[in-house]
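Example 3.2
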Amino acid sequence: MSTDWKIDCGSDGFVLFGSQSSRYPFAIAPEIGDADRTDQDSSLPGVDGTFFGVDTTAGQTVAFGLTAVGEDDAEAAALYAAFRKVWRADTIRATPGAVATLTAPSGRSTFGRPRRITPAYMPRGAGAVGITADFATQDDRWYGPEKRLSVPLRLSQSGGFVFPLTFPMVSRGYTTAANTFVVDGDVDSWPVITIKGPILNPTVEVPGCFRFSAALTLQYDEQLRIDTRPGRQTVLRSGSKIASLTRTSTLLPAASLPPGAHTLTLSGSSSTGSPTAQIAWRPAYSTP
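Structure, written as tokens:
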């Protein structure tokens, strides 16, 4: 297990920090702020007490106090410049929805964006530059490595004709397939579901958690991606086209997976090919 923290900003680079060997040791321990909260509390004039509504949480701020330590002032300044270049995250901050990855020594990660970074220049000859840096997270969870499960939909051997008949005639069977999986962690996680064609009117369900149905036909080279993660909730067809689910489908913010055993079911009609549904998730934790 690493002793360093890591900020990964994709094409903008990454940097390890925290330990003496990283050249960016901690001056003070990291501080993880409480998640921003929005409540719907209300009170009535002339009546004692408060009525509590629905509380929602946003992200947290993770604050770091570091020191860039060099052999001399010039090297310390260069180390700070290199750290600041990554922390700027120019590509990410110019891309709506893009996030950086902050990974703790435990291996758990959170997603968000680097924010404040301020230097503290030491007296000449110290060979060090102090760094105060903040990271804003997308939600208040820390995640383990991504896990995936696929459910292939085999063709039904008992399908019939679909009326009205069209030519050339195609025989379709409505089929259901399922597979089981286990979600680790200590808090709910949000999955990403990808349905790959060819399939007609697909439905994916994890009983007790969500049910998504789409009234459409996916060709063999098309897919439907349902992303339930906070800050990224979308339904896209083949990566770019906005798609919709049926009115009876679960709302995306309500489609979380609690820790434990679950079963993913794929239903739909297909006459050729091998349609599949894939679910991807990360075990979620309340601490890094």
